[in-house]
Amino acid sequence: MTDRELIRSLVRRHLRRASGFVVAAEGSPLPVGAEPDEVRLGDYRNPAPWEAHTLVFTDVALYAEGRPPTYRLRWADVVDYELPPSKEGSVGVRILTPSGFAFARMAGTAGPTGNVKDVFGLIMILKTLAERRRREVRAEGDDVEPRP
Predict the structure, then answer these.
(1) What's the pTM?
(2) Are 31 and 130 within 8 A, CB to CB?
């Protein structure tokens, strides 16, 4: 499975139930700064009062659009992530890259009683990518401690 196929699979699997996620139609326009061969997978629209913050998922990167700061975070650059301090108040996740942290806001809830935070779908994607990166680094001979 290629990296792009993995991302497509992870996004479909982990975000399909997120309240603010909409699958992109085939051939949807790419976000500003995207590579010409990227494929837009879907958009995440946050609920009020964060509706100005939108996440765009492609098979190469995560884009934060709307209210600054805006950014492009390549999936290949994901090193790790920080779990939110509590499940109940979770409105996003901090993502570690080689150049520092980026914050991805996903403040919606899903489930029959609204008790499932959307951000945990993104966290599952990040967990898979971070674990994969740690395995690759260990295979290259560098010492990396596994995440507790």
Answers:
(1) 0.90
(2) no
- Within 13 Å, how many C-alpha atoms sit on residue 127's CB side? 10
Read off the tokens for 146.
Answer: 């596994």
CA distances from 20 to 17, 48, 107 (A): 9, 11, 9
- What value, to the nearest 5°, has the Cα angle with vertex 8 and ends 114 and 79? 85
Kindly state the DSSP code that residue 68 receives in the 8-state scheme. Answer: S
Q: b/e per residue, 21-40, with b = 16+ CB within 10 A?
A: beebeeeeebbeebeeebbb
Going along the chain from its start, the domains and CATH numbers come out as: 3-139 (2.30.29)
Cα separation values, 46 from 21, 35, 79, 82, Å = 9, 25, 25, 20
Q: Using one digit for the tens of pLDDT, what is the confidence trace for 95-115?
A: 999 999 999 999 999 888 888
